[in-house]
Amino acid sequence: MSKRHIIIISPASAKANNGNWRTALRWKRFLQPAYRVSISSGEIALPADAMIALHARRSAPAIAAFSQAFPAKPLIVVLTGTDLYRDIHSDPDAQRSLRLASRLVVLQAAGLEELPSAMREKTTVIYQSATPLKAVAPANNKRNFTVSMIGHLRDEKDPLTFMRAAERAHYPMLRFIHIGGALDTGLEQEAHFLQARHARYKWLGNLAHGETRRKLKHSDLTVIASRMEGGANVIAEAITSGVPVLASNISGNRGMLGEDYPGYFPVGDSQALAALIDRAATDAEFRLLLWRQCAARAPLFSVEREKTALLQLMDNALKPKD
């Protein structure tokens, strides 16, 4: 008996090197032992037994086409940050995707609060995972304190807040590294200007995922400055590498790190972020508190947990109806 075919729609390609593409690739790997899986950027490779579409708005044409061609087959829509915190509240295409989906997936529990109550019953929470990397023990003679940000240069990731914090933080041994491709020419210019003015800040551009994880692993701290996040994969990667996180105080980050996490700063507040960075660099007890609370969340982001949840979702969706 041939394996059933699942098509994953990702609006991003491998070249984009973003969260959507990494999720698609990881989910393909999880599903492949039981199913035949293909990834497409929008074209539907028919016939297929089920579809998983990442991004309700950007994948809307493929979602509509699959629903029309196979109205009785499972159609799972995975909601991103821009879906949850912007598009589903105002965009007709995203709203249509919600209605057409037989199942919805959010990537952290706080995402459920953004959905209409009627949609929550068909929604599953699946936290994204990352393979654990052994934490790097600080060298006895280490002087620099490295703060990283991983995220493309686009408005939703708010890289300017990280850049301004790099200018405003006071601790002299701070070093800032910024990884991500330039998707906005204005932000790219800002990165070049800051790099020219301050030797402590380096914009490294778009790196391969393995190199990005290596840089993250060797950071003392990482920053998520985003204005909106569906469930940042970099949080999972940081926590499973033993790297504490400072994050903008938004629903998507609270859903990953917990409501009582002490490492939040107001969205867009570079002065508050700079103060937190200085505190983390100089206050060992505060650093330990951040590390302990991140470590307590680590089980949420285990590979086995995500794989089990995904396989259970697909097995149930494809189970023959009585």
Automatic annotation (TrEMBL):
SUPFAM superfamilies: UDP-Glycosyltransferase/glycogen phosphorylase
PANTHER family xrefs: GLYCOSYLTRANSFERASE WBBK-RELATED (PTHR46401:SF2)
Protein name (database record): Selenoneine biosynthesis selenosugar synthase SenB
Record keywords, A-Z: Transferase
Residue ranges crossing the lipid bilayer per the database entry: none
Domain named Glycosyl transferase family: residues: 140-287
CDD domains per UniProt: GT4_PimA-like
Source species, domain of life: Bacteria
